[in-house]
Amino acid sequence: MSVVEVQRLRVALVADPSVNIVEDVDFTMEAGEILGLVGESGCGKTTVSTALLGYTRKGARQVGGEVRVDGRDIAQASPEELRRLRGKVVSYIPQDPAAALNPARRVLSQLRELLVHHEPDCSTEQAEERIATAMEEAGLATDEGFLRRFPHQLSGGQQQRVCIAMAFLLRPKVIVLDEPTTGLDVSTQAQVLRTVRRLSKQLDVAALYVTHDLSVVANLADRLMVMYAGRVAELGPTAEVVRQAAHPYTRRLVAAIPEVHSRRTLETIPGRAPAPGQRPEACTFAPRCEFAEPRCLTGEPALREVAPGRLARCVRGEELADRPLAARVATAMSAARDGAPILSVREAEASYGDHRVLAGVSFEVRRGECVALVGESGSGKTTLSRSIVGLHALSGGEVVFDGQPLEGLARRRPDDVRRRVQYIFQSPYNSLNRRRAVGDSIAAPAHVFFSLSRKERRVRVDEALERVSLTARHAHRFPDELSGGERQRVAIARALICQPDVLICDEITSALDVSVQASIVRVLGRLQEEEQLAMVFVTHNLALVRSIADSVVILDKGRIVEGGPTARVLDAPEHDYTRRLLADTPSLDRAESGTRAS
Amino acid sequence: MSTVTTTTPTATAAEAPAAAVSSNHRANVLGRRALRIRQTQIGLAITAVMVFIAFVGPYFAPHDPHALVGLAFGKPSSSMPLGTDYLGHDVLSVLLAGGRTVVWMSLVSVLLGLAAGTVIGVAAAYSRSWIDGALMRSTDVVLAFPNIVLVLLFVSLLGPKPWLIVLLVAAAWAPQVARVARGAALEIVGKEFVESSEVLGVPQWRIMVRDILPNITGPLMVEFGIRVTWSVGLIAGISFLGAGIQPPAADWGLMINQNRAGIVQQPWGVLAPVLCIALLTIGVNMTAEGLTRAVAGGGRKEDPR
Question: Is the peptide bond before B248 cis (omega within 30 degrees of 0)?
Answer without folding.
Answer: yes
